[in-house]
Design brief:
It contains four helices and six strands, in the order αββααββββα. It is α+β, with helices and mostly antiparallel strands.
Length: 146
Amino acid sequence: MSLPEPQDLLPHREPFLLVDEILELVPGISARARWTLREDMAFFAGHFPGNPITPGVLIVESLAQTAGLAAMSLPENAGRLALFAGIEKVRFRRPVRPGETLELSMQMTRQRGPMGWAEGEARVNGELACSASLSFAFVDAEQARG
């Protein structure tokens, strides 16, 4: 069985698709993915000149997108969006620099009605870069258009 492409499950597109490849996917349970930070990514020019570091909010977003892969792979979530509802217990352990690859791992801890919770981590070469617990709300894509 081949794995889908991230854009098959997520509504995100460049430049805000922060997952390059799905490594493992257990629908509704967990996902492992990879995001390689290219030197030509625009945010590195200003964060920080001469000392480029991946913004922490983008690392958290890449974790959320990884959780989204697990959640959105369930048939009952087709046609829905997963929107942030909460970000908790975020810890950054090391800077992530251009040329490095984030290994992202997220586990769904529960889903109740239109709410979901997940926790996981981002690593670089096995070294912990960030850990977080996230919550999100499932909404119909049409409803999200306002």
